[in-house]
Specification:
Elements (H helix, E strand, L loop, with lengths): L6 E2 L2 E2 L3 H13 L4 E6 L4 E3 L7 E6 L3 H13 L21 H25 L4 E3 L10 H18 L3 H14 L11 E3 L1
Helix pairs in contact: 1-5, 2-3, 3-4, 3-5
């Protein structure tokens, strides 16, 4: 299957449709899983009957797709049989303890999301995702994400993540990821 990569004035154009095609190419057959643009909050939906599993990302946002793919790449086989992998999610407005719990489970997927972003030549920003709650320590969280990324780069990424990183590299013509100096904190 061939894809076209668009470049506008020296910058890559990142389209969510490309991620859907790449994800399908990598995982539709082998994992019976599809990447789907949603209209609301992101969610993972396990297959019902003859359907396929769905990794649903928010509103066509490229970054949301990368983030949700990262969560899927970490989830084990049993978790992939449960809606949203069986995890509890506390929405924006978290207190300090809830924010700490949120960040604890977000370090690995955000490190993988960063690697995806690097492979695609897409700007990555760490997200603490708590605009209406306690003020998180963004620098400390960014450091934990950086450390996890370095650990993955040293010891290896989960198999599905490594496969998707390679697909992104081939599609966007990027080289092996270097430890990201461009890791940014999202407000």
């Amino acid at each position: 299957m061939r894809f076209l990569v668009f470049v506008v004035r020296g910058a890559l154009v990142h389209q969510y449709q490309d991620l859907i095609k790449l994800f399908d190419q990598c995982f539709a057959q082998s994992e019976n899983t599809r990447l789907v643009k949603g209209d609301g909050e992101p969610v993972y939906l396990p297959a019902k009957g003859n359907e396929c599993h769905q990794v649903v990302f928010a509103h066509g946002y490229y970054a949301s797709a990368l983030h949700e793919i990262a969560h899927w790449c970490i989830a084990g086989k049993a978790r992939r049989q449960l809606e949203d992998y069986g995890y509890w999610y506390c929405p924006d407005g978290r207190n300090a303890q809830q924010q700490a719990e949120f960040e604890l489970v977000e370090v690995k997927p955000q490190a993988i999301e960063c690697a995806f972003s690097e492979a695609a030549g897409f700007a990555f920003k760490v997200s603490t995702d708590n605009l209406d709650g306690v003020e998180p320590d963004r620098i400390a969280f960014e450091t934990r994400v950086r450390n996890q990324l370095a650990e993955y780069q040293k010891s290896g990424f989960p198999a599905r993540a490594a496969q998707f990183i390679e697909a992104l590299r081939q599609f966007y013509g990027s080289q092996e990821c270097a430890h990201s100096a461009a890791l940014q904190v999202a407000m």
